[in-house]
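P.,

For your records, the input lines for the assembly:
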Amino acid sequence: MEMEALKQTKERFAERKVGNETILVPLSGNVADLNEMYTLNEVGSFIWEKLDSMDSIDEVVVSVLNEFDVDKHEAEQDVNTFLQELSQFISKHR
Amino acid sequence: MTSTEKPIHLRIAGFVISLQADGAVYIDDGYAPFVVDGSSSEISIAVTCSSGLEHAPTCSGRPLYEASDENGKLWEILESDDGMFINVYSPEAPYALQQVCLVSEDHRSWQVWCNPNENRLLNSLAYPLGPLIMYHLTLIEDCMMIHASGVAVHGRGKIFTGVSGKGKTTMARLWFQSGAEVLNDDRLIIRKETIGYSVHNTPMFYADEPRSAQLDAIHVIHHAKQNSLRKLDGAEAVSAVLANCIQHGYRKETIDRHLAFLTEMIESVPVYEVGFVPDASIVAHIQDAGS
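Structure tokens returned:
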């Protein structure tokens, strides 16, 4: 899924930061699906927050690299895994 | 059944819902114990009922939300420029219109149209509208409604929540047998107080007096081969409780509001995941753990 598409799908979730984690509640056709909530860990929450201000996946990787104590390979892996999981989750709640 | 031509005031979880009509109204037995003298009460929701569905406005707006059960549609919210428009259907005669509601934007004023019964009395809260109005308290006041059983020991309340079949009624029975007061075994309101949180029963289809307690803990329960108890924190605690709260989230702001309520609540009310064997040992297990 492209960055622009990911950004647009943010509107389809209610979200709440709880500590370092973020709870996402999908709004499927304006209906909240409480049985399908999704919790983002600290890195996922950071990426979720940054999506609006990023234009490419490379930019997201750099921001993770700057924020967390990880090398470039780990940052790429974290971002790709996150985006893949998020895309699957979003596809499920189209 | 209670009938009167005077306005009726119901105090539910400490919040007052007023009922007025252009004729005599009646309320089902479950609401009668919640009637109070409302002359000096601050009213959270005002319901005004008019006789005759034929006089109700119609709305051609697109459906925003629909609630159904196994028999069919219970109610639907339609997009309207005049506020929120709700068609409520009879649970006994699927798709037969029972009430029409026009609700102000702030959810505090409900104009309801319904047909009188054979005695010319209006039942503006006839199920499922009563619980739906109660649910709207959670959108305007600091409270939430949850599928749960609740018990109180010396005024200190515990909530046991979980989807159907997880043991809510069983747990209430076990605590009752150990001497606790059962607040309710199906639906409760959690309310934020000046200090801490309280738990309250709500009118059911049967008569029961209003009951409440200070909320000490929430237990998310399931049947298990042995008793276990684990404290949940942060997002896990919020998600576990929210998943069992009653809500019709046709608006993002509604869910945001409930998420915010629970995030604040778990700071002072602990949430536990509890696996239990359905006998008296779980009561002791929870009491021994101080939860």
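Two observations worth noting. Chain A is about 50% helix and 20% strand. Chain A has one domain: 3-92.

Regards
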